[in-house]
Amino acid sequence: MFITLLNSYFTFYHVQKKLLIEQANKVNSSYSSKLSTTVDNFFSISEEQLSYGARLLVTHIQSGNLHTLQTELQRIHRLSHVFNSMLVVTENGQIIASSPTSLNLTGLTLHSRQHIAANKGKRFFISSPYTSLSGNYIIFISQPILDDAGNYLGYVGGSLYLNNRRVLNEFMNTQFSNDSFNTYVIDKEGTIIYHHDIAQVGTKFTDPTLFSVISNQDKGSFMMPDEQGIPSPASFIRTQKSGWIIITQQSFHSIEEALNNVMLDVLKQGTPLGIATLMILSILVYYIAKPLRQLAKSASSMEQPGVIGKIRAVKAWYQEIEQLKRVLLMGTVLLHKRIGRLSSEAHTDPLSGMLNRRGMLESMEEIRGEYKKVSVIAIDIDHFKSINDSFGHDVGDMVIRKLSQQIRKNFRKTDLVCRIGGEEFLILLPGADIHVATVIAERLRNNVANTVYVPGSQHHQVTISIGVTTFNPQKSALDIAIKTADNALYKAKNGGRNQVVVEYLSDDISLAQH
Q1: What's the per-residue H, E or C state across 440-496?
Q2: Could you tell me if residue 24 is inside a domain?
Q3: Which of 6, 43, 83, 470 is the most buried (most CB within 10 A)?
Q4: Residues 422 and 338 placed together within one structural domain of the fold
Q5: Prior bond to 100 cis, omega within 30?
Q6: Separation CA 21–CA 251 (nearest Å)
Q7: What does the DSSP 8-state code read for residue 355?
Q8: Do 308 and 372 fall within a single domain?
């Protein structure tokens, strides 16, 4: 009973742990969805500001007034409060205006992969993290500049520094600052864009589980090692604007702490009642289990002959035991009947009704120690294949059944009569010497030759060939005796069939000579 309570406690522990992990996944998923919406809103605002700037700057680009263009870009930069720096870049990659001017970027030409992608796309573009001309680790966001006719003039863009607490980083710290969560933002290539440990920004996210999960879905949950290396529940979601992956994770320590508190409360509230229940149940179990133990003991030996009387002797002092006793008694009676039937089926050839090889071997084991001599008669139907080929297998089966009847008539009930396969039969005669066995075999051969015909053809006589031997089962193996009888049978068939041939085991030759 104590084991049962202990098992219940640990079962409750594991169920509660699973529920807490599922709850953590739900919370993680909800939080990551909220952060995804926040990031998408941030980029929507950035896109609107750049679109507004592009519309203002197009006139200055067309007029070629770079001084006015520079002044307007600086004004837009001051008002945006989003970007660390801003650039206006022509289609051929030349920077014609930049803010702040302290970066000294105006006049330089861009050849970077990010510039080529922004120019080629001619649409709102968010780059992967890279190191800018000024040496900052940044993300660059750009919007194309088009004239009234839709001609592409270049783009205006802004940079977001990742390696210091400026703009994007401060925005993420404000939105993502929750001590209960470990939050990552990674780009499409697996580079960490945001983490509370700024030293990890710019490094590659290495957990392989995430990449196998995100390959075919945009959000989900998985187990990921936390900062202590313990697998903990985490959820992810892919942002719509940037395609970034936001991962939120609760430390397993917090889940374990909550679980331990729950289990401690269970122990405090359940222990006194559990002890009292344990004592009462122990007493009840003893009296309830006593007749059950008696029935179980009887049930463990249901195949024994005296078990039915033992079941009837059990005192049933409550209704359920009485019902169980009645059912067990009924089942035992049926089992005994079925065992007898199955045993018969397992040891009997269905066509002839004789023992099969298994039945013969088991029966021989039972009598091995009782007799010092056992004769073996091997029988084979002559030309049985031609009977099957000429008259069909149904007729062949009828011949086997008729021969089986003749064999039974010619042998004692104590003899082991066996069909070992096809048209072959084997008879073991306990206590019979080889002379008696030979006489019986010859009588059988003669009866078959005169009385057994192929059904439907009174002119097609059935004959048999017989091999006879004898052995001492306490000295020689049955297999050797059967092989000797088979050798004699083959000699009978090779000698013209429809005859009896006797062959002695080497140990019995001297006996036959006396």
Answers
A1: HHHHHHHHHHHHCECCCCCCCECCEEEEEEEECCCCCCHHHHHHHHHHHHHHHHHCC
A2: no
A3: 470
A4: no
A5: yes
A6: 11
A7: B
A8: no
Q: Give the pairing type, strands 424-430 and 500-502.
A: unpaired
- Domain check: are 361 and 505 in the same one? yes
Q: What is the rounded CA–CA span in Å between residue 411 and residue 428?
A: 10
Residue 410 sits in which domain range? 357-512
Query: What are the tokens at 430?
Result: 């306990």
Residue 471 identity (one-letter amino acid): F
- In this structure, are 380 and 496 located in the same domain? yes
Query: Over the stretch 10-54, which tens digit does the pLDDT of each residue have?
Result: 676 677 777 777 787 788 888 888 888 888 888 888 889 899 889
Query: 315-328, pLDDT tens digit by residue?
Result: 777 777 777 777 77
- What Å distances lie between residue 506 and 146, 362, 437, 513, CA to CA? 114, 25, 18, 12
d(CA 68, CA 278): 90
Tokens 């206006």 sit on residue: 88
Helix runs in 144-299, H state only: 168-176, 208-214, 252-299
Q: Report whether 397 contacts 422 (CB < 8 A).
A: no
Q: Please check whether residues 297 and 372 belong to one and the same domain.
A: no
Residue with tokens 């033992």: 310
Number of other residues whose CB lies within 10 A of the CB of residue 384? 18
Residues 415 and 503 in one domain: yes
What does the angle CA 281 – CA 286 – CA 289 come to, to the nearest 5 degrees?
Answer: 110
How many helices and strands, by DSSP H and E, does the chain display? 14, 16
Q: Which of 262-276, 308-322, 421-435, 498-512 is the least confident region?
A: 262-276
Phi, psi of 458 (to 5 degrees): -75, -5
